[in-house]
Amino acid sequence: MLSSVTLKHVGRINIVTKVATATQTRTIHDLTLRKKTGEPMLKYGLGGRSSTNGHIATVFGCTGFLGRYVVNKLAKQGTQVVVAYRDADEARHLKVTGDLGQIIPLEFDLRNKEQINECVRHSDIVYNLVGRDYETKNFTFNDVHVDGSRVIAESCAENGVARFVQMSALNASEDSTSKFLRSKALGEKAVREVIPDATIVRPGTMWGHEDRFLNRIGEDGGWQYYVNEGNTKIRPVSAIDVAHALEIMLTAESTTGKTYELYGPKEYSIKEIFELAREITMKPLPIRAAPNAVFKLAATFFDKLPYNQMVSPDLIERMSMNDKITPGALTFEDLYINPTDLETVAIQFLRRFRSNAVFDLPYEKGDGQVQKGVYHLID
C-alpha cells in the first residue's frame, strides 16, 4: 500500500488530504513453471473468473456436449481459452463463460493444418474433444478420431505445446466389433506416436442437460427400444464430473502420459435406467423389444436417410456391449473426485418430461403410495 499527501489551501485554512493508492504485490507463489518446457506463467488478480492464472488453453470440440462444460470450468479460474469452432453460431454462447478478452473464438477445419496451427500456437495445453457418434459422407469415424487427432497432435508438437489431452471412450479397443470404438483406440495410438506423454481420457456414457442418453429416454416419442433385451450393463457418468477432471489436468503435471477411465460409481442395466426414468417422469415410457439383427437391419435403412443423427448399425452394436473396466486403470479416485451417483440427481434432468399435473411432486424411490397417487391423478 502506497500513500501520498496532498496540500489544499482554502482561504486561511490548510487542509491535508491523505490519498491511498492500492497496488498489487506478487511473490514467488504467483509464478508457475511448466515442467516440460520451463515456460513461466504469472498470475494476476485474486483468483476466479476476473483474474488471470497465466494459462492459455485451446479446446477443440468446444461446441459439443462436454466441451461447453470444459470451457466454463477453465474460464472460471482465469484461463484464457481459445475456442476452436466450425460454426460461429454454435460457439457464440461460450463467449460469456469467461471475462472480457478471455474467450478467443477461432475457426478451424480438421483438414486445414494452417488453421489448426493458428489455434494452438500460443497455448500451453490443448484439449481434443472432437468426436462424433455417426458417420457422414464427408467424415468417417477414422477421419475424425484417427486422422483428425493425429493432425492436431502434430500441430501441438510443432508449436511446442506443453500438454495434450485426448478424449477417447470407455471400451475403446482395436479389436472391438464397433467401428466407433476401434477408431477411438486407433486415435489414442496415433496421438501417442506423435506426443508420447499425452494424457488419454476414456469416459463412460455421459449424462447431463443436453445429453443423448436421458433425453432420448424421457422424450417418449414411441421410438424407444431394448437392444440386447435391456440387459446391457453400463456405468453412466456426469458430464460435469468429467469436465472437472479435465480442469484438474490443467495444472496437475502428474497426469502427464497417463490414461484415465472415468465412469460412474454404480453399474446399471438398461432396464434399470428405464425403470428409474419411469419412476421420476411418472410416465409409462413404452419400449419395443426385438432381436439385435432386426434392429441393425432397421438402423441400416435409417442410416441411409439424409440428416439422420438418431440411429446407425454401429450404435446398435455399441448399445449391446457391456462397459468393461481395465484392471488397475486410473479413475476419478486418483484425481480426488467423488463421481456423482445418477440416482441422486436424476430428477434434475428428467423432471421436465413430467406432465403438468405431477410436475412439482417429490421423487422418493420405492414409495409405492406416492406412485399410486400419481397414476390416479393421471387417470
Task: Outline the structure in words.
- With 379 residues, the protein is of the alpha/beta class.
- It has one domain: NAD(P)-binding Rossmann-like Domain (Rossmann fold), CATH 3.40.50.
- Helices cover 32% and strands 18% of the residues.
- The protein has twelve helices and 17 strands.
- The chain has a seven-stranded parallel beta sheet, with helices on both faces. A two-stranded antiparallel ribbon has the order 1-2.
- Helix 3 (113-120) packs across helix 4 and helix 8 packs across helix 11.
- The radius of gyration is 25 Å and the shape is globular.
- One of its GO terms (molecular function) is protein-containing complex binding.
- Residues 61-246 form the NAD(P)-binding domain.
- This is NAD(P)-binding domain-containing protein.
- InterPro entries: ComplexI_NDUFA9_subunit, NAD(P)-bd_dom, NAD(P)-bd_dom_sf.
Name a few traits of the molecule.
single chain, 379 residues, alpha/beta, seven-stranded parallel beta sheet, globular, disordered C terminus
Secondary-structure blueprint:
Layout: E1 2-10, E2 13-21, E3 31-33, E4 40-42, E5 56-60, H1 67-76, E6 80-85, H2 88-91, E7 103-107, H3 113-120, E8 125-128, H4 141-158, E9 163-167, H5 179-194, E10 199-203, E11 206-207, H6 214-219, E12 225-226, E13 233-234, E14 237-238, H7 239-248, E15 259-262, E16 268-269, H8 270-281, E17 288-289, H9 292-303, H10 313-319, H11 342-350, H12 368-378
Helix pairs in contact: 1-7, 3-4, 4-5, 8-11, 9-10
